[in-house]
Amino acid sequence: MVTFSIVAQGGLAPLVARWCRVPMRTIPVQPWAVGIRVQGEPVGLRHYTITSGAPADGRPVFELSREEGWVSSVSRDGEQLRLGRETALRAGDEVLVAGGEQPAAEQVFTGRDE
Predict the structure, then answer these.
(1) Which CATH number goes with the domain that contains 85?
(2) 96 is in which domain, residue-wise?
(3) Is the full-model pTM beyond 0.90?
(4) Are 86 and 58 in contact (CB under 8 A)?
């Protein structure tokens, strides 16, 4: 019974969506995930996507103030960047920021005030 349900629901979903004119898109598989599991909610870690025109767009990481936090990791086009003094952030980059003040970081990485 479970097998039938999985095959019927999983196999028919694209057909029913097309029939109901529900837009669907294919998402490429990304085989690697970087993460760490902790007992409690992480404190002081935030994820941002750099928006076009944000103060951080086009700026090297070393120019950012520690008030915004420490840029711990940057992913560009699905690839992990090796951070160095001259690594410049670009719109679309995903950054993991540790520490700093959230309102300042929000403004610098996204251009929005919280």
Answers:
(1) 3.30.70.1450
(2) 43-110
(3) no
(4) no
Structural domains of the chain, count:
1
Partners of residue 45 on adjacent β-strands:
98
Paired with 60 in beta bridges are 88
Contact 101, 65 (CB under 8 A): no
Q: Are 76 and 93 in contact (CB under 8 A)?
A: yes
The answer to whether position 25 is within a domain reads no
d(CA 105, CA 60): 15
Q: Please give the pLDDT value at position 109.
A: 92
pLDDT digits over 55-91, tens only? 999 999 988 877 888 898 999 998 999 998 889 999 9
